[in-house]
Amino acid sequence: MIAVANTRDSKKVPSVVFAGIAIGDYRRHFIERVRQQIPNLKVVTGDIHFELSFKAAKNLGFPVHRVQNYYLAKRSLIWQKKILGICLSADACVIEHNPRSLTAWAVGLRRRAAGKRTVAWGHVDSRSGHKPINSFIRHIQRRLCGATLFYTNKERKIAVDRYAREPMAFVAPNALYGRSEWEMPPDCSPRDFIFIGRLSEDKKPDIALQAFILAKLPPVCVMHFVGEGQMRPTLEKIAQNSDRNVIFHGHVSDRSVLAGLFYNSIAAISPGYVGLSFVQSTYFGCPIIYSEREPHAPEIILAKEGFNSLSVEHCKPDCFAKKMECACLLFGDFQRRVEIAKHSVSMFNIEKMADGFIAAVNYSLGQKYF
């Protein structure tokens, strides 16, 4: 039990820190929303995540304190230099919940010793799924911090049901855009396909490209790849040796550009694990074709077979190609795409995400400040 003293002073606004390993530009709208209620929010980020293709945004549009990430034991552990003092001095601190982060353990331990709660923000289990020892270690880190912020209600329920002494938990649904800025998809005739995400082996973009080449699709159909990664040269070579239309856009964060790509795509293709890309695609009314046997992130709860998605049992190009042909018949209806978008934005939006974040911060402070 952490005793949080009631030190509220009407003249003093509590200091709040949000610290991440590498905060990407996809968090920009969310942080802007939080800053409307917590103007003095201090954002701290390292440079590169465990995955080399995952880098922090160069410009989020507001001041960001940058620290150096140091990786140990063949990139299995991380220490963030000069971040401990920032987190210890803050009245409230939200850190990335990751047992591989020595920084998270140190911050949680030192703040606990000082009688301060820390909010650990992350998943109940690792990407590889529930493994008793690994999951228990994650639970210990959450208990050390004193409060948790999960991405879905399902994760919160799993944690509470699994561990009798699970700390107070809140939910911030993983989102990219707001309910207030949502626009109805245009009544158009989509004809393309899209892959969005890192062009890395775990995302399996090569399966998506090979499936597109195999699928019996109209010659005018284009496959769009949005993202960067070490596999791009290989993918470009495969595309050049085919007779299909493939466009590599690189990293794109402009919402209007992305909207146009999704509106004109019959479906998004995701042979690797599915996460935030599911939320992003369906926000614009674009369904997704995904591999059902991958270790998906909690956002997979959005999936409704035949409504906003098609699952593929075997992650092979020919299996994805057949589903792409089916998608041409299923997902061209305008009203269907409107319903897909409404369903997505009702479950995952930055308003809900910010509310969960702020509720966790207030709890860590001992009472409602924001």
Question: What can you see in these coordinates?
Answer:
With 370 residues, this protein is an alpha/beta fold. Helices cover 35% and strands 18% of the residues. It contains 12 helices and 15 strands. A 7-stranded parallel sheet has the order 3-2-1-6-7-8-9, with helices on both faces. Helix 1 packs across helix 12 (350-365), helix 6 (205-214) packs parallel to helix 7 and helix 6 crosses helix 10. The longest helix is centred in the last third of the chain and has 16 residues, at 350-365. It is globular, with a radius of gyration of 21 Å.
Query: What is the H-and-E element order?
Result: EHEEEEHEHEHEHEEHEHEHEHEEHHH
Please state the structural category: alpha/beta
Poorly predicted regions are none
Using the CA coordinates, give the radius of gyration. Answer: 21 Å
Overall pLDDT metric: 94
In helices, the fraction of residues equals 25-40%
Strand content: 15-25%
Count of helical regions: 12
Number of strands: 15
Termini separation: 24 Å
Strand order of the largest sheet: 3-2-1-6-7-8-9
Largest sheet features: 7 strands, parallel
User: Which overall shape is indicated by the principal axes computed on the Cα atoms?
Assistant: globular
